[in-house]
Amino acid sequence: MAGTVRAARHRGRAGAAFAAGLALGAAAIFVALGALGALVSGRAVVVGAVALGVVAVASDALGLRVRPQIRFQVPEPWRRTMPLPRALFLYGLLLGTGLTTYVPATAAWALPALSLALGDVKASLAIAVGFAAGRALPVLFLSETAIAERPRGLRLLRVLAAASLLAALVAGRVEAAGTVASPGGDPSAAGADLAWQHPGVGGFLRRDDTTTQLPGNDPAIGATFVAWHAGADLTVADRATLTPVVQESVPGLQKLAVSRSWLAYRTANEIHVRPVTETGPGTTVEKVKAPATLGRPALGVDLVVFHRATAAGSWITAVNVVSGKRLRLRHSSDAQLLNPSLLDGRLLYVRASRCSQQLVLGPLRGGRDRVLYELGPLAGQDAGHERHHTSQGEHLPCPHRPRITAKMLWTTALSPTAAYVTVLRPGSRGRTVPTLLAVSRG
Amino acid sequence: MLSEHVAGATSRRGFLARTGRLLLGLASGGYVVGAIKAQQAEAFHFCGHIYTTGSCPHPTGLPRIDANGFPLRAADGEPVDDLGRPVDKLGRPVDARGKLLRDPDGNPLPPAPRTRLCAKTGREFGFRGQVDGAWYRCCNGHIRKLVDCCGYTKYRINGDYALTGYCYSGRHVFCVMYYDTKIAC
């Protein structure tokens, strides 16, 4: 191929046609895989893609034989029967799909799998550009002998491919659960804006890549508003200018949520909702007696959602603020369902069960939930049988030995591109320290 | 008399008699120890259980319960919730030192479900679990109450046919649990 391009009278045009074909072919195949991944990608696909990536990194780093190889070659007669730029464009188109001719590095096989696992068209397009560049540059700028006749050149290429793939896998892992703030927790998201609480310091708002400390605690954002409180003093302000819209005193105020039309707040045992620009206690939508607890409220258009946790069970409930109608969105009598948030008909919440803790995203009214992030369970298990007794008849709670953690998944927030979750780490004397993580919605 | 005793004790016959008794003692002692070990290591997975029905599924493994049927951690008798976490009397999670776990605002973390073991088992396996009868054994120096979890079920947790055990009114034993009393034995 390098010979064909170099033999062209107008090398620049020929090279551009070849590169354009490569880019188009790669974009078509990887974008299609990304779109397909958006429909089918799940935990199994991601695990499979990462496993394939690790194998590819090892294979290229160790210089193992590249397998499998496709023996299908581009049609040779094209370069004799067509104008050369057109033939090179078509050659590029075929090579760009990755489905023709030999591949010099195993990393090439990991890329389609990663694209499928990502399930993201933009990210797949980026992979396509990288793939096309990787195929075009040696042809356009290296001599054939540099790769074909000097093993060191090919070896270097494969090591570079392994390093790039490894960096992508590590970056993907970091992106999968990146730390936003530590200590920091109780996130609230609206569009690209994010607010959170730094314990003992106050609320923070990140807007247009600028982080501002707010003059209060437990910030909540929604529509054009930001709300915070300093003790019992509640403020609802314009998010762009931080100019107060409503200020009043609400005794016992703990947590807030705000939307275009509504303000919801939680006291120790109650959740209230009222129109955002009015004052007063509003409507009490839920009330519990200790030790039962209510979670932080979250608002949709006219829905307020929250969890109720008791020793008898765990509920995620939505209340239509206009009609007063209540919906039981999720319930469990053996797992703990915590701190929901919602956006565009999707519900994000924490599910802590005997054998794992999961950050789960699913349709608001139930259906197929998807696990975005997972931690081990909060407790271990014994042998299932007493010392000097056999294991006959024992029943262990988890099918495999659990990787216990003391970290707890806690409050959540949902944006169009990311899910946010607070992870609590136990400190001294029963206190917990929060860390705010961002997880890709996939 | 004394001379006879001394003669017997020092004679060849007396020596053989003593050696024989010693060997017999060692052999029988080994047999007894072996018998005890065999009993302990028989096909029963916890002390006092003498049939083959399996444990009720428990948050931490061994099916130890309190007097009301709620799960306790077998190792130390601490109450645990359905997630296996140690909890206080109100069902709120506590740390290893028994201190109430709190969120960053200082509020107690929410309780997780804590369910009677037999009722939870019944719910999980599709029958109404209830405790009918029990039997008692001495285990680790204390009286242990061994409890059958009963239900109108033909099969037990092992997957084969259930036995009647200490269940009444046509109910059968689905699985077993135990409650360690504080009564010494």
Question: Can you characterise this structure?
Answer:
The complex is a heterodimer of chains A (442) and B (185). With 442 residues, chain A is of the alpha+beta class. Chain A folds into 2 domains: 2-176, no CATH class; 178-440, 6 Propeller (Neuraminidase). Chain A has 9 helices and 25 strands. In chain A, helix 3 (43-62) packs antiparallel against helix 6 and helix 3 runs antiparallel to helix 9. Chain B folds into 3 domains: 2-40; 44-79 and 114-185, no CATH class; 85-113, no CATH class. Chain B is built from 3 helices and 3 strands, in the order H-H-H-E-E-E. Chain B has helices at residues 2-10, 12-40, 117-125; strands spanning 130-139, 142-151, 172-184. Chain B has a 3-stranded antiparallel beta sheet. In chain B, strand 1 (130-139) and strand 2 (142-151) form a beta hairpin. The longest helix of chain B has 29 residues, at 12-40. The model of chain B is unreliable at 1-17 and 22-43 (pLDDT under 50). The chains are: A alpha+beta (442), B alpha+beta (185).
